[in-house]
Amino acid sequence: MSRSSVTPDQITAKLRQPGPKLNSQLTDRLPAPVREQPITLRLAQLRPYDRNPRTHLNPKYDEIKESIRAVGLKQKLTVTQRPGDDRYMISDGGNTRLQILNELYQETGDERFNQQDCHFVPWQGEINVLAGHLAENDNRGQLSWIERARGIFEAKRMLEEEAGESISQRELTKRLRLLGYTIDQSHISRMLYTIEHFLPTLPLTLDAGMGRPQIEKLISYRQFCEECWTRCADYWMEHADDLGEGEQWAKNVVDGDFAQAWHEEMTLLDHEGQTEFRWNIVEDRLKGMLNEHTGLHFNPIDMAWKNWFTVRKYARAATQEERDDIWTTVDSELARLRHPQERHLYPPKPEISPGRPSSGKSSDASGGAPITKAPGVNEGPISGGSDLDPDDLTFGDGQSDLSPPAAPPSERGVPQSGGVSESVAIKQMRAQLAQLEQQNAELKAQSEQMPVTIRGLGHGESDPEEDLLDSDGLMREHNPQPMRSPEEQATIAADLTLSPHHETEGHRQLRHWQAKEHGEEAIDFEAAALKSVPLQDGGPIAPITDLWHVPTWRRNARDLRMQIGEVVQLLASWAGIEASGSSEVIRLNAREGLGYELGPLEGAPSRRAQLVWQLLAGLEGNIDPMMPSDISLLGEMVGSHGDDSEVRLPDGLFVRVFWLTRLIRVLREVQQAEGDS
């Protein structure tokens, strides 16, 4: 039986029949490789690492971009893929290069920027990727201190979340080393300290690039302040049953919050674009904070400060005795705050026991040789039956201050080596010591304090001697605020105070102390109000007490530029212009020039913005001919002509414009002096 032959048409019909139906879903991409290998990817398939420690633009960004534009990417991108992600992610550094490739492809459309040969590594975990980025950026030296600190903090959080428990700094160092990132434990300690204590208080300074040496110094400053605060709190808790007159200071430090006091003080020193502090100002502000909260005088704080930093210089660890010696002056000051009227004399007074005979002879403290009254010593009975009062001493004719009166042994009734001469000498030494203390207090009051204003002289309102003393009979501390009539007080409050400003007593004492250290007299608002036009403003900028006087301790180029920058920032804010360390219109710069640099004012600026910009350009000596350029712009801002009230300077800014010109003049003088030297 012959087979039927298949015709070509039948074969064609069978070939055209559809195949079996596909039950699985179609995919538009291949799965990630399972092992390390090279791979070619398009830019659309790549994404940057979203937890990159670097938060600022690479300082060599433009240089890297031109190199890639010219010769392409020399080093392959290392990529990985998170589980469930549809794109590949940069693994061990390369976010800057990926950003540049995207920019170049958008600018040129060249496929050599779009198609990239990459090196794929399988996914191992979030902590591995973070450690890879930290190691890559750290090796290149491109991360700032705060960027590395944030990365270390995030790595610690990831490892603790993975372990389900907290880990020590030593353990963190070991685990990061296993992940390929080697860092010293002391660095980790400082970085975590920075995140905890400095980042909330000084974000602008840290983001500007403050480095490790500055951080280490700031850590030591904070540690001293915290240790001093704790020392005071421990003292008051130890004497909780007998606070004396120190109840207020005990409450301040025991119930107070050191971290909050530190934050409030240091946040005033945080400025944009600032990478280092003027440490003399920081030191003075912190000592003022301790004075204000603990009641300690500046001198014992300063002495403890010097001793504390001296001990820290030792290569070895300080002994407990050395650490206790640091706080000797602070402990003495705390005792004075507790009992301010108590006087400690040396040698100590001999105790007189009750029931002694009232005759001219008595036994000494050891019960040995009898003691008789020396000639020339006032007589009078005292409590307990003794007729010798150790606090009521006068000297006879021809008697020296320290030696006992010369009298025959028969008159003294005892041998020359007996206890009488010794006892009298001790009493005379104590009396001499009291006289010297009184003279020293009077000389100190004359040299350090101005005469206290006496109220009501000639009107019978008060006695001058009583006016110089307080309720306890002690000399009042000098108060620079003079007594004024109600009319003068009303004038000051209504006409000379543009906005109220409260200065704490601690800050006022600090200003006076700084002025005294530089041989000047500090100026206070109340004292200068009727002879100048001060500006008291409660904002972030310091109040203007005098429109002409610039303190000596602020007469240096950097400090003057910082003051100029503060005024410029206020003017710019009023005009609606950004003024900061990174602004392209008004960039603040405390290192050179007048303290600010001007860029073009683009767009459609308001009239107010044009006038402020041109005013600053005129002070800089580089005006824009397209904007108001004649002297009338000053008149329009001052308000001497023109009808637009929107561009007239408020009174506070009007005063600060004159203060700005004064600061610039002083800056020029300082620059010329430095040039001559």
In percent, how much strand structure appears in the residues? 5-15%
Number of helices: 26
- How many beta-strand elements? 10
Low-confidence runs = 344-349, 352-420, 450-480
Q: What radius of gyration results from the CA coordinates?
A: 40 Å
Counting helices, strands and paired strands, the structural category is mainly alpha
Average pLDDT confidence is 74
Using the coordinates above, name the CATH class of the domain at 37-208.
Alpha Beta
The strand line-up of the biggest sheet is 1-5-3-4-2
Q: Which range best describes the helical content: under 10%, 10-25%, 25-40%, 40-55%, 55-70% or over 70%?
A: 40-55%
- The CATH architecture of the domain at 37-208: Alpha-Beta Complex
Output the CATH topology of the domain at 37-208: Conserved hypothetical protein from pyrococcus furiosus pfu- 392566-001, ParB domain
What is the CATH homology-level superfamily of the domain at 37-208? Conserved hypothetical protein from pyrococcus furiosus pfu- 392566-001, ParB domain
| Intertermini distance | 125 Å
